[in-house]
Specification:
The chain has seven helices and no strands. By secondary structure, it is mainly alpha-helical.
Length: 118
């Protein structure tokens, strides 16, 4: 028994963890991976919680927050309305696009920066 025990100790290490350590080279430890994922999720939730802590705001702050949320929905609704207008009144739509073609590139670029920077 002593000889086999010593041979196994040489091959697999004294503590018997050599098989586990060797396997972890080829396959990550699922418990440690799950713990890392849980820690990451917890830290993300803590960050979201800290970000969305609502303090009491005045009427002006609430009004400005609402105003800041308007540009993108208004743009989407107006583009959809233009598509609907193109379906029903081709002449009106054509006149609008000809007017849009007269707007300078600098002005369109400025509007683009304002809209996409919101």
């Amino acid at each position: 028994m002593g000889l086999i025990e010593r041979m196994m100790g040489i091959v697999f290490g004294g503590g018997g963890n050599m098989i586990r350590e060797t396997a972890q080279v080829f396959r990550p430890n699922s418990e440690a991976s799950a713990q890392r994922t849980a820690d990451y999720d917890q830290s993300a939730m803590s960050q979201f919680e800290a970000e969305f802590q609502f303090e009491r705001k005045g009427w002006f702050d609430r009004f400005m927050d609402g105003l800041n949320r308007l540009p993108r929905p208004v743009l989407v609704i107006s583009v959809l309305a233009l598509f609907l207008a193109a379906l029903f009144d081709h002449i009106w739509f054509s006149d609008r696009l000809q007017g849009l073609a007269q707007v300078s590139e600098l002005c369109l670029g400025t509007i683009g920066v304002i809209v996409w920077d919101c």
